[in-house]
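Today's session is about reading a structure prediction critically. Students often jump straight to the picture, but the first step is always the sequence itself: look for stretches that repeat, for charged clusters, for runs of hydrophobic residues. Only then move on to the predicted structure, which in these notes is written as discrete structure tokens rather than atom positions. Here is the chain we will use throughout the hour.
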Amino acid sequence: MSRIGRMPIVIPKNVEVEIKGANVRVKGPKGEMQRTFPPSMFIEMDDGALEVKRATDERTDRSLHGMTRALINNMVVGVSTGFEKVLEVNGVGYRAEVQGQNLVLYVGYSHPVVIEPPEGISFETETKTRLIKIRGYDKQLIGQVAADIRKVRPPEPYKGKGIKYLDEKIRRKAGKAGKV
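Below is the predicted structure for this chain, in token form.
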């Protein structure tokens, strides 16, 4: 039995969960999410908690069990408290700022790079620490937006200039060795 799959998902007071067969709709103060799961996963609600059970012990059902529970848990946590990913801008003259809802990056190109947020995503920047905070209720979408922002100017290994995740470690290389 999956260790993650058999754990119950506790539903907070301010979150509504609606289950119709394989469709799950979760609504909370941050937003609303809906997802369809494989029909071999049984999602049941009892006493303010959700449980995910599988039909058989086949390999595909075992692999989907924990994933289904994790996705539903991410939906519940997302609409109740939300998620956040933090990026850091490193480099002389590199900076990021928010204009309206858009994120504007100045990262060494001849033009500023403007990134429009998808629905449910918001940007916040701190100019002193050069941090970009990406907030929203869909964990997958936040990760994709963060990866797209990082792709604008990935960190390089010699000086570490570029956009990186806050907890990311950049493997630094030694520069050219001079002739002796």
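Discussion point for the tutorial: The mean pLDDT is 92.
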